[in-house]
From TrEMBL:
An annotated Gene Ontology molecular function: transmembrane transporter activity
SUPFAM superfamilies: MFS general substrate transporter (SSF103473)
Major facilitator superfamily (MFS) profile domain location: 94-511
Protein location: Membrane
GO biological process, one term: organic anion transport
Record key words, sorted: Membrane, Transmembrane, Transmembrane helix
Membrane in keyword set: yes
PROSITE patterns named among the record's database cross-references: MFS
Gene for this chain: LOC102918790
Organism of derivation: Peromyscus maniculatus bairdii
Composition bias type Basic and acidic residues, residue spans: 526-541
Membrane topology: Multi-pass membrane protein
Name of this protein: Solute carrier family 22 (organic anion transporter), member 20
Region spans: Disordered: 526-556
InterPro entries on file: MFS_dom, MFS_sugar_transport-like, MFS_trans_sf
Amino acid sequence: MAFTDLLDALGGVGRFQFVYTALLLLPCGLLACHIFLQNFTAAAPPHYCQHPANHTEATTNDSGAWLRATIPLNQHGVPEPCQRYTEPQWALLKSNTSSLGVATEDCKDGWVYDRSIFPSTIVMEWDLVCEARTLRDLAQSIYMSGVLVGAALFGSLADRLGRKAPLVWSYLQLAVSGAATAYVGSFSAYCVCRFLMGMTFSGIILNSLSLVVEWMPTRGRTVAGILLGFSFTLGQLILAGVAYLIRPWRWLQFAVSAPFMVFFLYSWWLPESSRWLLLHGKSQQAVENLRKVAVINGRKEEGERLTTEVVISYIQSEFASVRTSNSILDLFRTPAIRKVTCCLMVVWFSNSVAYYGLAMDLQKFGLSIYLVQALFGIIDIPAMLVATTTMIYVGRRATVASFLILAGLMVIANMFVPEDLQTLRTVQAALGKGCLASSFICVYLFTGELYPTEIRQMGMGFASVNARLGGLAAPLVTTLGEISPILPSVSFGATSVLAGMAVACFLTETRNVPLVETIAAMERRVKDSQSKRDAERKSEEISLQQPGASALKETI
C-alpha cells in the first residue's frame, strides 16, 4: 500500500484538496506580477535633453520651435534622446537648412520625459537612459540573481525544515521587501530590495507545488499542476490591468506587494506535508494533520480510526531505507537519479532562457505595452488547455517534449518575418511564449513526480537553479543581436529544440504512477522496469527465432 491509498481513504480529491490548492496557488499567480513588473515600473518613455539653464530663450511660447532649434532629429524625424546642440540653431527653423556639421554634446542638464503614458518610472526618477541605460537591465538581473539564490537556499531548507516554514517566511519577506521597494530613495537601495524579493520567488513556487503534489492523490496531481500554470497566467493578466489603472511606479509596486501580507497571515493555517513529517519521524503530527483532512473531507470516522501504526503501515515498505540526512550529492550518487538530474538541468535552463528572452522586454515589439502583456498572458490559456489534455491522456514526457520543440521552431521561424510586420512578429512570438509557458508548468509537475519525496525539494531547488541561470543568461543572449540580428532567435530556438529532444530520449513517463518516497525505491523501480523490458525483448527474439526453426524442421 502507498501513501496515496491513505489519501484516497480520507476522501481523495475532496474539499480539503480544493481549498488547500486554491490558497496556495493564489500567491503563485501574483508572483507573475513581480517577475514581469519592470516591464512597467522600468519602462523607458520617449525623452530628449533638457535645455541649459542659462538659455532664456527656453521661455518662448513656441516650445516646438525651441525643440527643433536645440535638439537634433534622427532619420525618422524624432528628437535624439542623448544629444543636443551646443548652441540653439535658430537657422534650422528656416526651410532647406541642413544640420550637418552643427556641433552637438551629451545631455548635461538632465532629460525631458514624455509622461503621457507613464507618469513616473525608475528610469525617469534616476535617469537610467543613455550612458546609464544598462542599469535598467542590471536591476532585472539582480532580481533574477535573487531568484537564483532563493532556489538554492529554499530548496535545501525545505527538505530539512519542512515545506511550510520556508513558505511562510517567503510570504513575509516578499510583503516587507516589496513594500520597502516602493519607498526607497536611491537606485542602489531599490536593487537590494529587488534582490530580496527575487529570493522569495523560488521559496513560494517550489514549496507551494510540493505541498499541493504531496497532499494530492495520484488522479488529481495533473490538474493541480496545470492549475499552477493558469494561476501564473492569471497573474500576468492582473498585472496588465493593475498597471493600466495604477501608472506611478511606486503605487504600482505597493499594490502588487501588499496582498502577500494577507497570504502570510492565513498561511499559518496550512498544514505541513504529512509525507515529509513521516519521513522525519514526526508521525504524531502527521496523524493529527491527516485527521484534520478527514474531517474537512467529511470522513471524520475514518480519521478517528487513524493511529500512528496504521499510517506507518501504509508506507513502511517505502520508508524502510530512508536516509536521515541528504546532500546535493544525492542528486548524482545513484544511476537513476543522476540521469534524471542531468537531463532536467538541460531542460530547465533551455526553457528558462527562451521564455525570459521573449517575455522580459515588451517595448521591443513597438505596440502598446499593456496590450502585449495581456496578449502574452491570454495566449497561455489555450496552450495550457491543450497541455492539460495531453498530460492526462498522453503523458508528461510527450507533452513537455512537444511544447519545447514547437516553441523552438516558432522562435526560429520568427527570424524570417519582415521587421515592418510588427503585429505578425508579436503574435508569432506570443505563440512561442505560450508553448514555453505550458512546457514550464508541465516540467514543474514532471520534476516533482520524477524525484522521490526524500529529496524532492532539493531536486526541484537544484533544477530551479538551472532555470534561474537561464534567466540570467537571457539578457546576455539578447545582446548578441548587436553582432547579428539572427543570433538571439537561433540561440533561443535551438536550446528549446535541444531540451525537447532530451526529454523525449532520457526521461521516463510518470502519468498515473504513484510518487516514489525514497532513493532506494526509485532505483528498485528503474531496475524492475529494465528487467521487464529485457524480458520482453528476449521473448520477442525467441518468438522470431521459433518460426525459422519450425520451417527448417519441415524442410528436413
